[in-house]
């Protein structure tokens, strides 16, 4: 099925309640540096409540700012919230290139930089999540944590999410890149996937990287693992990723 978002989903609306976005810093023992992330707190945010958290990851050309520069997540989420279509949630956009110079510059395919996307697993699990959960009123259970991302971040979401089912019950990969592990490595024990609340795989039909998601999808089908397989028009590009955030976020934490 080719689905699309409702018109205006990413357009700024006047007179609605707004969430807030801030850039935070945390100590990363993994990298040995102070690292940045961008954090969205929803409209009406109150420290008296606890909130589920979506970790939302960028692609090979991005950093912690990429979603906010290109994907308007704040507008998309504020609109959804105003229409009562999503649960209030905190959305953390980390920097998934876990190395000292984590800026998206120079040769982005340098093997050291690609390895840094793998190293991010430890930075996320051991450094960033504990930081978020000690500085925000964030829920601390797997059913209240989601991980999703685009391209390299989609690969990371599968690699990290499925490898850490004790941390995440909601996993989404939008146009996953070749950093995605093979399906058998991602999910050596398909029975365990039954603990997932949502496994979402998607791509744009004009994307040259579709085979990666297709291979995971075929394996999951063979193994009888429930998942959402979402395809839409478009390529390896922002309209697809924004629409995926729009659709995926509506399913979270319900
Ligand atoms: C590759 C092609 C694309 C690759 C990564 C990408 C690691 C990532 C693209 C993106 O994040 O947009 O061969 O190898």
Describe this structure in words.
Helix 3 (111-135) packs across helix 4. The protein is 33% helix and 20% strand. The protein has one domain (20-249): 3-Layer(aba) Sandwich (Rossmann fold), CATH 3.40.50. Strands 1-2-4-3-5-6-7-8 form an eight-stranded mixed β-sheet, sandwiched between helices. It is of the alpha/beta class and 254 residues long. The chain binds 3-(4-hydroxy-3-methoxyphenyl)-2-propenoic acid. 3-(4-hydroxy-3-methoxyphenyl)-2-propenoic acid is lined by residues 59-60, 114, 151-152, 177-179. 3-(4-hydroxy-3-methoxyphenyl)-2-propenoic acid binds at residues 59-60, 114, 151-152, 177-179. Pfam families: Esterase. This is Esterase family protein. It comes from Paenibacillus silvae.
Itemize the secondary structure elements and their pairings.
Layout: E1 20-28, E2 33-41, E3 53-57, H1 66-71, H2 73-82, E4 90-93, H3 111-135, E5 145-150, H4 152-163, E6 170-174, H5 183-186, E7 198-204, H6 210-222, E8 228-232, H7 238-251
Parallel strand pairs: 3-4, 3-5, 5-6, 6-7, 7-8
Antiparallel strand pairs: 1-2, 2-4
The chain binds 3-(4-hydroxy-3-methoxyphenyl)-2-propenoic acid.
Please tally the helical runs, counting DSSP H or I stretches of 4 or more residues: 7
Number of strands: 8
Give the overall shape, derived from the CA principal axes: globular
Low-confidence stretches: none
CATH superfamily: Alpha/Beta hydrolase fold, catalytic domain
| Helix proportion | 25-40%
What small molecules are bound in this structure? 3-(4-hydroxy-3-methoxyphenyl)-2-propenoic acid
SSE order: EEEHHEHEHEHEHEH
CATH architecture, by name, is 3-Layer(aba) Sandwich
Major sheet summary line: 8 strands, mixed
**Rg calculated over all Cα atoms:** 17 Å
For the biggest β-sheet, the strand order reads 1-2-4-3-5-6-7-8
Structural class call reads alpha/beta
Total domain count: 1
**And the CATH topology?**
Rossmann fold
Highest CATH level, the class:
Alpha Beta
Q: How many angstroms does the end-to-end distance come to?
A: 23 Å
Mean pLDDT: 97
Proportion of residues in β-strands: 15-25%
């Amino acid at each position: 099925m080719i689905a699309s978002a409702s018109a205006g989903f990413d357009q700024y609306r006047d007179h609605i309640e707004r969430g807030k976005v801030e850039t935070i810093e945390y100590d990363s023992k993994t990298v040995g540096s102070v690292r940045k992330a961008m954090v969205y707190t929803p409209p009406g945010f109150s420290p008296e409540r606890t909130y589920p958290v979506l970790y939302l990851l960028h692609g090979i050309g991005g950093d912690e700012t990429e979603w906010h520069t290109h994907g308007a997540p704040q507008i998309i989420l504020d609109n959804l919230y105003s229409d009562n279509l999503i649960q209030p949630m905190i959305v953390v956009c980390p920097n998934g290139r876990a190395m000292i110079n984590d800026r998206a510059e120079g040769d982005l395919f340098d093997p050291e930089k690609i390895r840094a996307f793998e190293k991010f697993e430890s930075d996320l699990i051991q450094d960033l999540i504990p930081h978020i959960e000690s500085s925000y009123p964030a829920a601390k259970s797997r059913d209240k944590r989601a991980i999703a991302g685009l391209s390299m971040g989609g690969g990371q979401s599968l690699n990290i999410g499925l490898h850490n089912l004790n941390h995440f019950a909601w996993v989404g990969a939008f146009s996953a890149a070749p950093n995605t592990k093979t399906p058998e490595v991602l999910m050596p024990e398909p029975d365990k996937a039954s603990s997932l609340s949502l496994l979402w795989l998607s791509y744009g039909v004009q994307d040259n990287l579709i085979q990666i998601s297709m291979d995971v999808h075929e394996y999951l089908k063979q193994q009888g693992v429930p998942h959402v397989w979402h395809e839409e028009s478009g390529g390896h590009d922002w309209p697809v990723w924004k629409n995926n955030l729009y659709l995926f976020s509506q399913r979270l934490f319900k």
